[in-house]
Write the structure tokens for this entry.
Amino acid sequence: MASLDGVLHEKGLAKGTNWWGAFVIGLAGTILVTGIAPYVVQGTGALGIILMGVMTIAGCFLCLCLAELATMWPDRTGGIPGYATESYRPLVGETTARHIGGVSGWAYWLGWFPVAPINVILTASYLAVLFNFSPGHLIDPVGTTWGTPIGITIVLICFALLVAIFIPAYFGIRLGAAFATVLGVLSMVPITAMIFLPFFKPSSIHWGNVAGFHAPAGVHVSATFIAAWFFPILWNVIAMEAAACYVGECRGGARDAKIALTAEGLFGMFIYIGTPLMFVAVLGLSLTTIDPLTMYLSYTEKIFGPGSWEKWFIGIPLILALALSVLNAIMGCGRSLYQAAEDGQLPRIFEHKNRHGVPGFAMGFNVVCSAILVLLGSPVRIYIISNGGYLLSCTLAIGGYFVYRHLRPDVERPFRLPTWAKWIALAVFVVWTVIYFYGGWNSPKIVVGPGQGPGLYLLGLLIVALYAPLYWWRARQDRRLAVAGRPAPAAGLADAPPEPKPEAPPATEPAAGPVGGDGDPPVAR
């Protein structure tokens, strides 16, 4: 059914974009390289190329797995949590699978919405450098254990940016995709070009800095060190899966899902490996602790020499890149909250769609939560808290792919990976599980600082655990509706692919409405 604005309204959210829209909004995940690469290079040296490269390849593989799942359920939205319930159902049954999907959706929200506060903090700080204004009086509203001092002017700019970027998200996927296209092109072209710039001045490249993939002097490399750094690295380098948040709104269905996720994975792999490689080759290993903008400026100065034009050439694309990530964080994980609520796992308020066919309340909720996290003032600390949710959701996703591919191998798939891919998925699931628990526990003291305990990581786990009272709230809402004589939504999904007859579970309750629509974060993360 078409609306007056020409956007198709089918089950779930409006079908208002195509593979290109999903791809360019999903670039918000790839753009996170601007934040993580400088920190990794400073903390791990040339070893960081290997650490980021290995996990980026795993992230690209995750995108391919998601492409297969997305082609089976092309109307589901919100990214990886949208497939969790269906993929685990053959193994654990209906009730447990629904809760795996619910935990995954809530964890994905925790993983993606903090991208917004992290990136508005960086954006406001870069604006202060570019336009040479004071960050304002320093405040420390949460204490030095949980945060760092932040200027009050920076805080006010952050709040203004969150509201401004929320506007195109609120007015629908078509405007959001158009806005993302402009930001994506203007930011990714310079960031991609910077990987090639040193080749125009070969004397700026010193491959000896890369040889051996050594860590900086004085850094002791151990299994704990590597696992601890893998934890925040994974928060970034697998975020290219963000394109999956929007395939449910693509008019081309399975075809668009396959193209968007495959393109996102391959492009993300190039950016996440090429950026740290060229940083080390040009700048070497003797790096002091500097912010990402300063590192990018140092990089271009090594190639072109000092010049006032550089801070604008680098600063403007970085700001545009960060703005795109903020847009995806607000839009993407808002859709995951929507999908989990539509599946009956989170409170009904997250199911609300505005007149533009998008989950307006869920996205507004993200803006409010983002404003609260801005007060921490520290992107690295927010990384640790956020990954308590994000890596859990991604690990469940790759595990779910193995389960469904192994137990339902004959279900029709418009896009199918080779059979051996399921065993790689199982191996990635095991490795990511170890990193999630062991690396997450040790990450604060190694990545943030020696004085840090596991509190930031545990806070992330605590927020994930809030799924239990939220689900209880939703169950209570459904019971009230049942008493009032109104049917509650079906627990299962109406758009699941046909199962082989001997294994197909009997339907136990009718669907009360369209399922398989929109969801959350993040991840866009």
Remarks:
- The beta strands are 8-9, 14-15, 138-139, 150-151.
